[in-house]
Amino acid sequence: MKLIDIFLMFCVDFHYVKLVTGKPINTTVTLQPEHPFVGGNITLTCSSTIQRWPEAYKTSHLSYQFHGNTRGSTVNNKLTLHALTKADKGTRIQCQAIDDLGKVSNMSNTVTLDPYYGPDNVIVEPAVTIINVTEGTALGPIYCIATCNPRCIYNWEQKWTGGFNPFPNQYISNQGRGVNVPAIHRSQTGTYRCRVDHSTGSVHKTKDISVNVQYSPKITDIWFSSDIQKNRVRTPATFIFNEEENVKMTLRVESNPDSQITFKSSLLNIQHINKYNRYTYYTSNLPSLKCEDSGNFSIQAINGIPYADTRTVNLKIWCKPRNATAESGTIGAQIGSIENIVLHVISFPKPTVRWKRVTGFTWKIEKERYDYRHKIYSKIRIRSEVDFGAYGINICNLLGCIVENITLKPQDKPEAPQNVSVVTITFRSVNLSWIAGFNGGLEQTFTVQFKTINNDKWNVLNVHINDVMTGSTIYYTLDQLRPDTSYQVTVVSTNLQGQRNTSLEFKTEVYIGRRNKYSKSDLKEKNVKSEKSAEYTTIQRNNPTFTDAYSTLQSPTGTKLASKSIKDRTDS
C-alpha cells in the first residue's frame, strides 16, 4: 500500500480524535446499455472509492462530475442522455469523484459514444414501386441499399402463397444486395422484398418492389351464345344465327397486361367478367351484323407486347330475302322477242323463286362469290301486246318471302300505218285514211310524203294529231294537186326507235270547167261530182293549204275510192 503520510494522534485528555484521509481513487465510468441505438436513452454511472483511517469512524460522502457532455441530466453518480442521435457518435465522456473534504479524484476512464442505428434509408434501385419486364428478357439488376451501424445484412424474398420465401441464390449478387434474373418467366411475377437486418439481429426493415412479367396474349377458348341459342358453343368452326339474334361472345385469354379485343377490325366494348389464375375472361355483345357480314371473322387480342394473337371463326348470318336488284325494274321489249330476266338477291339460306304470272319458264339459282348472294334468272316470251306489263317474282327462304316486280314495256319502232286508202278524190285534192298501228311503247307521229310519178322530189307534210291510240282511224286531205295526174303517197309512222311506212298510188280526176268572163280569176268555184264517190268535194281555188287531218273510229258518209295500187308496207 502506498504511504499517504497519515498519522493519528490520540489525545488522552479526551479532547479530540484526528482523522486522516486521501483523495478518492479508482474512479470509473460505465454505460448501460452497452450498445445503445439512436433514438434510445443511455445511462452512464460514475464510481469511485475513498480510503480512511480509522475505518468506519465516519462515512465519507462523494459527489460526481461528468465531463464531455452537457445535455444530459445528472442524478447522483448517474448521467442519462435521452434520445441519442447519430450526432452523438464520438462523444467522449469522463467523470471525477469529489469527497466531502473537497478532494478530487483523478479523471476516470473515457467512454466514447457510438450509438447503433439502422437499417435506415432502405431503398431499392431503380427507385420505382413496380417494374414491368417482358417475359424472356432480363430482370435487373435490382439493388437494395440501406445504412446501418455496424453493418447491414441483406436478404431477398419473393411472395408466394402463404407468405414470403427466400429468393433462389443463383439470382442473388453483390453480397446479397442485388437480384438479377437473366430470362424471367411469367411465374416469377410478384412482390420482391429486400429484408435488411441489423448485425445485432434485433432490428430489421423491409422494402418491397413489384415485378410484373408481361407477355403477349393468347386466346385459349371462344364461346358464342344468343338469346335464342342458350347453350354456348365452345370454340366453334362455324356459328349460325339470324340477324335478329343478340349474339354474345366470351373469350378466355392469357394476357398481361389485359388485352384489347378487336372483332373484324372493329374495337369491341369488352367487359372483364372475372380473372382466374393467369386467365382473363372477356364478354361482349357482337355488333349488329347483317347477312352481308357473313364469312370469316378475325378476333384479335392486342396488349402492346409482341405478338398479338388472332383467331378466325366463320359466322353464317341468316336473313330473309332482300335487295333483289336488276339492271332496271322496267325493261323495254319487242313483240316476238324473248327477254332474259336477271336479278341479284341477298338471301341466307338459298332462296326458292317462282313467277306469280304464267310465263312458261322456271327460275334458275346460282350462288355468287358469297354464300348469302345469289343470281336468279329466267325468261319471258313476248308473243303479243298483252304480254307486256308487270310480272311478280316470289322469292322465299326459311325466314320469309318478298315479292319483286319486273315491268316489260313495249320499246320498238311503231307498226306501219294499216289500211292506207283513198276515201275521196277530186281533180285538185284527195282524202286519205289509215289505221294507226301499235306505237312501239313510245309516242308516235305521222308524216305524209307525196310526189308525182314522173318526179323524184318528195313533198313532206306533218300530220298534226294528239293522243293517237292503236286502232284509231286517221283522215288526211292533200290539196292543190294537179288534175289528171298520178301521185305516189307514203304514210310514215315514227317514234324514238325508228319508223315504218305504207305507200300507195292514186290519180286525180280530170278537170271540168269554163272561164267566167266577168271573173279575173282563172277558176270559178264549181261543184264537181266524182265518178267514184256519191259525195261532192268543194274545190277552194284560193286556198293554197291542205286540210288538217282528223281521226275517228267511224267512216265518213262518203264511199271510199279504191287506189290504183297499194304497195306493201316497208321499214325505213
TrEMBL record:
Keyword Signal: yes
Every Ig-like domain range: 126-210
UniProt xrefs under PROSITE patterns: FN3, IG_LIKE, IG_MHC
Annotated Gene3D superfamilies: Immunoglobulins
Annotated Fibronectin type-III domain residues: 416-511
Compositional bias of kind Polar residues: 545-562
SUPFAM superfamilies named in the record: Fibronectin type III, Immunoglobulin
Alphabetized InterPro entries for the sequence: FN3_dom (IPR003961), FN3_sf (IPR036116), Ig-like_dom (IPR007110), Ig-like_dom_sf (IPR036179), Ig-like_fold (IPR013783), Ig/MHC_CS (IPR003006)
Domain of life: Eukaryota
Keywords from the named record: Signal
Residues spanning the signal sequence: 1-22
Keyword Signal: yes
Annotated region described as Disordered, given as residue ranges: 545-572
Name of this chain's protein: Uncharacterized protein
Species whose genome carries this gene: Mytilus edulis
